[in-house]
Design a protein that fits this description.
The complex is a heterodimer of chains A (112) and B (116). Chain A has no helices and 11 strands. By secondary structure, chain A is an all-beta fold. In chain B, the strands form 3 sheets. In chain B, strands 2, 5, 6, 10, 11 and 12 form a 6-stranded mixed beta sheet that branches. In chain B, strands 3-9-8-7 form a 4-stranded antiparallel beta sheet, with no helix packed on it. Chain B has a two-stranded antiparallel sheet with strand order 1-4. Chain B is globular, with a radius of gyration of 14 Å. The chains are: A mainly beta (112), B mainly beta (116).
């Protein structure tokens, strides 16, 4: 069964550094999403992406964040200058239509 | 605005007990979807069920069942004869469908511990 994959599974970085989190959505899906989950808290929506552009973003998704679909398979989330409070699990999701989202296993980001 | 409330922060039961996880939602849309996801200790989000707002039929899948009550804006989840492997955080989520996709609003989660 096709799955959403994410790399790396864990990333440790220094405050102020740039990080890129990578996702490979399910191949025939058209909608892509990023969410984050701060440890012990609920999952929060960051951004949705459709037709090669951002379709919706939350107030969390400020100028430090950007997303890209550089080729036909990858979907990336870039954090330009990481802060301590960016430490979280980041989930990518994809869906074939505006319906059920399938989540990847997550990337655990730790900012020191 | 959308909102999902899971009033039970943590529940502990002994194996083989039945347990119900509550979910109450708020939305102004007439078309929306409700979901339950399981997050085991390993951290991934496992899809359990999706319900659309026009389908109020309750559903049973093995030991899992869901009770959707539009009149009370609730979408409760029952595990029958719980097992230790059911221990996880369970999230209820709501989405209002748009043509360009949707964003989920997750509830705060209920941590279920099933003791042997």
């Amino acid at each position: 069964e096709p799955e959403v994959t994410q790399t790396p599974s864990h990333q440790v970085t220094q405050m102020g550094q740039e990080v890129i989190l990578r996702c490979v959505p399910i191949s025939n899906h058209l909608y892509f999403y990023w969410y984050r989950q701060i440890l012990g808290q609920k999952v929060e929506f960051l951004v949705s992406f459709y037709n090669n552009e951002i379709s919706e973003k939350s107030e969390i998704f400020d100028d430090q964040f950007s997303v890209e679909r550089p080729d036909g398979s990858n979907f990336t989330l870039k954090i330009r200058s990481t802060k301590l409070e960016d430490s979280a699990m980041y989930f990518c999701a994809s869906s074939p239509g505006p319906e059920t989202q399938y989540f990847g296993p997550g990337t655990r980001l730790l900012v020191l | 605005a959308q909102k999902v409330t899971q009033a039970q922060t943590e529940i502990s039961v002994v194996e083989k007990e039945d347990v119900t996880l509550d979910c109450v939602y708020e939305t102004r849309d007439t078309t929306y979807y409700l979901f339950w996801y399981k997050q085991p200790p390993s951290g991934e989000l496992v899809f359990l069920i999706r319900r659309n707002s026009f389908d109020e039929q309750n559903e049973i899948s093995g030991r899992y069942s869901w009770n959707f009550q539009k009149s009370t804006s609730s979408f409760n989840f029952t595990i029958t004869a719980s097992q230790v492997v059911d221990s996880a955080v369970y999230f209820c989520a709501l989405s209002e469908a748009r043509n360009y996709g949707q964003n989920f609003v997750f509830g705060p989660g209920t941590r279920l511990s099933v003791l042997p």
